[in-house]
Amino acid sequence: MLKLLRPAVTRILTPLGRALARRGISPNMVTAIGTLGTVAAALFFYPRGQLFPGSVVITIFVLADLLDGVMARMTGPGSLWGAFLDSTLDRVGDAGIFSGLVIWLMLDGQRALAMVALFCLVAGAVVSYVKARAEGLGMTCDVGLVERPERLVVGLVAAGIGGLGVPYVLAGGLWLLAVGSAVTVLQRLLHVYRQASSSAPRPLR
């Protein structure tokens, strides 16, 4: 669903990306700054219980994940290093966001919900790993109910609204993410299994 919004967001970010590129700022620099800002904001605001301002600041830095892609397309074909760096730092950013939530929930005495947030972090990493491993073996795995954009939107919106004092929103968002992520892992495993079962056996290194 969120992929449908990418063209509109790209048009909005294009002037900013062009201006940064003219000043010699590379897409990889934007990726690194976005991740550093995301992790720093999550670990500063969330453990203090400042969920709304934290979510706003994190959202600003998360937009760098789209901006670096816009800039990469402007400056020519994307590099292998850039693609690798972007995927790796995505995992770091996700870890920062959900770790901040886990710390706050533990400090606030909401241990059960902290475990749900921890499950969201682990399941999100597994979702990404299954796709990367499948593509590394020459298969496709672009399926699933909850991918990274959905995880970020649901998580940040739930945390932000919960930080305004609206009850049950954070808990509902985290449980929704937990269930959706588990379903996505199963969807991807089944998708890869079908491809592997229908292909001829071949030696693997």
TrEMBL record:
Catalyzes the conjugation of the 1'-hydroxyl group of D-myo-inositol-3-phosphate (also named L-myo-inositol-1-phosphate) with a lipid tail of cytidine diphosphate diacylglycerol (CDP-DAG), forming phosphatidylinositol phosphate (PIP) and CMP. PIP is a precursor of phosphatidylinositol (PI) which is an essential lipid required for cell wall formation. The active site is at 90 (proton acceptor). Its EC number is 2.7.8.-. Keywords: Cell membrane, Lipid biosynthesis, Lipid metabolism, Magnesium, Membrane, Metal-binding, Phospholipid biosynthesis, Phospholipid metabolism, Transferase, Transmembrane, Transmembrane helix. It holds the Pfam family CDP-OH_P_transf. PROSITE patterns: CDP_ALCOHOL_P_TRANSF. This is Phosphatidylinositol phosphate synthase. Its cofactor is Mg(2+). One of its GO terms (molecular function) is transferase activity. It comes from Streptosporangium algeriense.
